[in-house]
Amino acid sequence: MHTSDESWTWQCENKFPSDTRTGRRILEEVLRELELQHWTQRDIFCVHLAVYEALINAIVHGNQEDLGKKVHFVCRLSPRRVHVEITDEGPGFAPDSLPDPTDDAFLDKPGGRGVLLMRAFMSRVSFNPPGNHVILERDRSDAARASIK
Amino acid sequence: MSGYRRLEVNEVGDVTVVRFRDHKIVEDVNIQELGQEMFHLVEKERRGKLLLNFSSVEFLSSAALGKLITLDKRVKAHGGLLKLSNIRPEIFEVFAITKLNRLFDIKEDEADALAAF
After folding, report:
1. With an 8 Å Cβ cutoff, are B28 and A120 in contact?
2. What is the ipTM of this complex?
3. What is the pLDDT of residues A76-86, one digit of tens each?
4. Residue A107 is part of which domain span?
5. What is the pTM of this model?
6. B96: contact with A, CB 8 A cutoff
7. Is any Cβ of chain A less than 8 angstroms from the Cβ of B26?
8. For residue B46, what is the domain's CATH number?
9. How far apart are CA B109 and CA B4, in angstroms?
10. Closest residue by Cα to residue A82 from A121, A137, A124
């Protein structure tokens, strides 16, 4: 996912201690900007859900809610795309090694649903090794109708 | 547990109908309390027929889904019945993507769910 050739109109960057309340506040800032840019409610819901799951993964699973460990959050917005990067200070993980939570054998087991939802609701999701850095992007669904170039 | 912080609990016949006070079920503390209150209904108050009405729920996280799965197990362990209703399309999509619509008995609305007990 290349960011250098996109026309970013809004950006935010935060490095914050591993606290879910702070993470939610920062996410609310992103969602407010999507509202101001008249993104559809559908797109906003998808971004809300996926980015929230990614933040929880970083704060709770990556950094173990250790307030001494930071989460680095970057968001960039263009007329046609939202780009989010989240990095934690944990050891990372292998997302492809997670059991399939939709498999009948694991349907009632915890784990893996957050990543599944991230991939379902965003246009692109990638984890950089060792897995403590995730990039999520969603393309604006009404870009053509809004004549966004 | 006399009052419920996270739930509105009513009786319709022999069915306990539960609505959620939180429109967004995300904060971990709230999810923990939610779970405790739902488990209390099943295990302490022995409510055998439980209907969760999701009409007020606009957003929920995977952690909330986990609590629902645990609730379903506990209801079944006590020989009870659990149904869900009034789930908004975007929230239902979350259940469908995670295939949890196969685990839970989900009805369109409360009337349908009550009739199905």
Report:
1. no
2. 0.86
3. 999 999 999 99
4. 10-139
5. 0.90
6. no
7. yes
8. 3.30.750.24
9. 23
10. A137
